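Researcher: Predict the fold of DUF1772 domain-containing protein.
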Amino acid sequence: MIAGPYFVLTVLGVLGTGLVAGVFCAFSTFVMRGLAALPPAQGVAAMNAINVAALRPAFMLVFVGSAVLCAVLAVVTFVLLPDDGTVELLVGSALYLVGSFGVTMVANVPRNEALLKLDAGTPEAAAYWPTYVREWTMWNHVRMVASGAAAVAYVLALT
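Model: Structure tokens for DUF1772 domain-containing protein follow.
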């Protein structure tokens, strides 16, 4: 069984990736549905406000901190090659780093930046809004599943 500081890192990995999965789950299951039900100008304005608010330290600490923690767990696992949990730790790290953090950088952030450039009340914003909601939510589902699966992999590493 994993022990000592390595155990603590893994538990923190479970907590971080699980918290991020919960945030993404909330967005996928009701926040985006609620925003999509608004008139486009209101939906665009609300999502832009959410995207700005998300960059505050509380969320960024959990989101980026979990990525750093996953990277540390992967490196430590490669160096120590523990008898127990090696595969689960590496899978959990890869899932979060690629499926959550990576997808955020290559899929969700560019869409957020494109939306932020649009004035909420314009015809361009109204035309882009349904596409944004559909594509952003699809990629958010990927992030949710990857983050949740990473948490499960880390839990399995502890057993």
